[in-house]
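Rotation project, supervised by the postdoc (A.L.). Task for the rotation student: set up a whole-complex structure prediction and record inputs and outputs verbatim in this book. Inputs entered:
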Amino acid sequence: MTALPDTSATNKSWWKQNQQRLAPWLFLAPGIFMFAIYVIIPIFQSINISFYAWDGLGEAEWVGAENYVELMDDEAFYTSLKNNVLWLILYMLAIPAGLFVALFLNQTVRGIRIYKSLFFFPFVISQVVVGLVFAWFYDPTNGLMNIILGWFGAGPIAVLADEDYVTYGIIAAGLWPQTAYCMILYLTGLNAVDPEQIEAARLDNAKGAKLLWYVILPQLRPATFIAVVVTVIGALRSFDLISIMTDGGPWGSSRVLAFYMYEQAFSEYGFRMGYGAAIAVVLFLIMMVYIAGFLWKMYRDETGR
Amino acid sequence: MLKARILGAALASTMLTTAAWAGELVINTDTSDPAPKAAFEALIAGFEAENPDVTVKWNLFDHEGYKTSIRNFLTADAPDLANWYAGNRMLPYVNAGLFEPVDDVWEENGLNESLASAKGSMTIDGKIWGVPYTYYQWGVYYRKDIFEANNIAVPTNWDEFKAAGMALKDAGVTPITIGTKYLWTAGGVFDYLNLRTNGYDFHMALGKGEVSWTDDRVKATFANWKELLDAGFFIDNHAAYSWQEALAPMVQGDAAMYVMGNFAVAPLREAGLSDDQLGFFQFPVINPDVPLAEEAPTDTIHIPANAKNKEDAKKFLAYLARADVQSQINETLGQLPINNASTVGDDKFLQAGYEMLSSTDGGIAQFFDRDYPAEMAKAGMEGFQEFMVKPERMDKILERLEKVRMRVYK
Amino acid sequence: MFPRPIEQTSSTTQTLYKIALPIALVIWLLPLIAVAMTSVRSAGDITAGNYWGWPTSFNFWANYSGIFEATPIGQYILNSFKVTIPTVIGAVALSCMTGFALAVYKFKGNLLIFFMFVAGNFVPFQILMVPVRDLTLDLGMYNTWYGLALFHIAFQAGFCTLFMRNFIRAMPFELIEAARVEGVSEIRIFWFVVLPLMKPAIAALSVLIFTFIWNDYFWATVLTQGAENQPITAGLYSLNGQWVAAWHLVSAGSIVAALPPVLMFFLMQRHFIAGLTLGAVK
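Outputs recorded:
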């Protein structure tokens, strides 16, 4: 050890001098490597595939923008797009619903903690289970919904077999866990609301809805922001519920882009990887609008600090 | 001499194989319903008893999920054997080189004679791509007791059929049950209506893309279908049910007929219907000028090109093709053997089907999604489902199918 | 506090509230209660259409042991653990490092890399599907638990990095400064100074990722197949195909599938809620 004091000293000092510059890259390397291989590069590969006709088995054939041209004239694509918009809009109901439940539960009575956790339950459960449960709830012969409708002399309505209701039916199923998610975000947010401001407002005779709108909600903005983000992403990712409850049917009327893409590329009769990739690219571009908005807000927060 | 050769081959194969897969034969099937499951259990046990050096590893998939899984496992993690279907359904895999030709198995075991009837549907590009082990008739399964109670005779032509349906409706029974959630059941109804309206040759020409979907003859088929729809012959909400769920109204006596394959008999019996209550009749004549063609899909087993243990897989195929084995497996399945030396079970539905199919002179179709290419089949069946709920959209649906046709058969 | 604490209201309101709470809960969880009830019914009840009346017999043991004996549901559950646990460990480990690097060091491209992780976390799965499946095939990892776990680790690294980075950002920077002055190397700072302070974040993230991955269905169907390697979500879907209209079995299976994340949630509730809001609401 003592034989080479000089070199080890210089080595050490070289590392010492540069370690603050090198250390971050050392720490980042494995993460960036994995993320690049499984996420970043595949995005570009998919964009590339969308210019080919490929059945996923044989050779791919370059077709240029043909897949996109076909997409513009594809009824099923517009159905999916329309349903995606429906999902985006209606899924947002989870935010006020979550706020409502959170306000209802934001008390300190005995056992309220257990109530809060039980209300949160649906979010912990897999969408597969949620889908199965709701598919059964809607079942036209034995489903609870139609039994209840029967009490009022209505129905039965086969929600999942009716092109006019099916998407709403699935969104309702999706709202159940999503409301639970938003509720928990707001419950935490409500904890952080400044009690002095509320008292001050109350002294000014502010009450109920007015107090909520002018004093509470502005303080809940971080929670609302994150609720919007997760709800938008959730709406655009909707796949599991559709796959389980209807398989896109009846006659494709409950498809969304995410499902249509899977159907074209991977399902029983789908052998069109290129066409599927083109659908995925469109979905990606829509999502990019939101991602860009999110990043823009983050960028302002970061640099404004 | 023969024995020595087999022994030698067996020895060679055990010596060549590495420990990892020595004598292990992996079989993937989708035979998850009770009767097919029992049939395969017996089949595999029988094979293992005769080949003690081979251990069979059997992966059971559910029926609907298998149709997407097969593509993945053929390319990625191939078993040694997999069940699938004849005709156009195997075409993509044959074209992609994912199935192994098995002409040698046919040659060595005399299958060219014993399985001759199915050879055509197993052949693509002059090679044979698997071994068929069963087929079954389609037709109309009906509640005999309900028909008798209402004095309805078995209909043999279109007018009688419609009259029977009206009589059932008057008695408060929905004439036909069906579950179209997974679409293919509607394909069966279309097949029969088209075969009876326009005949086998036209049906096949349409499948090959040679005829326009907006052709008047196609419209004639749909017009016949619309008559049934307008008269309310089918159960409500059929798009919400799978084919098994649609059995329930028939069992409970709320519906009286089901256009189905013979595999429906086993679950109907299991649900409590006796042979006195359940009957079968040939789909009635619509256009008397058209020779009667039938629908009889063939189920098959294939060796994936990426299989590891092809040696034993071929042994298994030879075993599966044997007359006695096919007799036995089809007895359990409640279906018909392909091997011409096999015996057909004395079950009344099997006998009826056998009789009907052996006297068919109009041609035998496989099934809509086996005779029509994948994309056309998917679009077609989706259109049929939509048509069954919204018959007024016929023209729009046919135009859409025509558009798909223009693209699929370039 | 908002709304006004219930203790400050009239006694009628208080009583009404206490009555409303359990009623609201029952309505909210009605689908789940129905499932739990159905899971103990007999097959006879199901065929007779007795879904909502009192069960004619309680078949708790028969149904639950039945699904374990007659189906590979035990294997599915095991597969889920085999995918979920390595993913939790891998994703948390990766993001501790990336989060540390992005939170502590100022260097060119820091924000860019951070945004790459954040953006990647939000992309639709479908745009990754075909290439990731091909990659997994090429690596010979198709239909293996580690093939699925590797993808999950990589993808979750996006969300986890966002979470960890924000958490470390909020830690007192003076600690790191002090250690540097004393000549402690960067790696030792990470290991001995920062990591011990990250324990709550690690716990919260672990519970979150456990739930996310356990409940994943899409990637399970894309990267695995068959009972041997598929996790419970995909398995349940496949069993549902076999148990047509056998709702008592479907229900029992659903409950079994939901149990691990539910248990996890109850045991680690505090961390779970901290996790949901921590990285995000900050």
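Student's summary: The domain at 138-295+373-408 of chain B is CATH 3.40.190.10 (D-Maltodextrin-Binding Protein; domain 2).
Supervisor addendum: Residues 1-21 of chain B have pLDDT under 50 and may be disordered.
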